[in-house]
Amino acid sequence: DQQVKQNSPSLSVQEGRISILNCDYTNSMFDYFLWYKKYPAEGPTFLISISSIKDKNEDGRFTVFLNKSAKHLSLHIVPSQPGDSAVYFCAAKRTGNQFYFGTGTSLTVIP
Amino acid sequence: GAGVSQSPRYKVAKRGQDVALRCDPISGHVSLFWYQQALGQGPEFLTYFQNEAQLDKSGLPSDRFFAERPEGSVSTLKIQRTQQEDSAVYLCASSQGRVTYEQYFGPGTRLTVT
Lengths: 111, 114
Fold this sequence. Notes:
The complex is a heterodimer.
Chain A: E1 4-5, E2 10-14, E3 19-25, E4 32-38, E5 45-51, E6 56-59, E7 62-67, E8 72-77, E9 86-93, E10 99-101, E11 105-110
Parallel strand pairs in A: 2-11
Antiparallel strand pairs in A: 1-3, 3-8, 4-5, 4-9, 6-7, 7-8, 9-10, 9-11
Chain B: E1 5-7, E2 10-13, E3 19-24, E4 31-37, E5 44-50, E6 53-56, E7 65-68, E8 75-79, E9 88-95, E10 104-105, E11 109-113
């Protein structure tokens, strides 16, 4: 049973435009959410996170939005750059240290 | 090095062989995680250590999978009598504290069982 879902396997965006990556979850007990970025042949690297008590967290070009009522979060990248091309994983955590990951969205930023 | 390292990077095993995958976490990191990532999927939790104590092994798919971290630093994931469905990338991650938010991942070991 997939508790964290990323329904878009891929996304293409023009350089300079906004990239929006979406993630849905089913478990209302999740209290912390994270986005990871992964290049080929490397492990995921942490990008940005948000606590369930907030609805927005911003770090430079990256903003994560959380809509608890809809059990939905999104990652906005503005402006998108070719170096942002990677696979992005959404992850969620509940009390304890077990993390649940989505299946990933492959972002391609076209120069 | 400063990051999490894993060895070997690639492993080919014949069905029925035993394999051992090693993880060197960031020095001083208390928490260590193992994940299995099948092709086209996200990482799936296998097990978690806090220092040398294995606090959660609920994700291990069968009793053929065994993990240890005897001195609270290096960890080994062992798979006995490998089967084709064990083919995946095995990721190790570590984090500084007992309560984990940000994890630091290694590059993974790609296991192929033929």
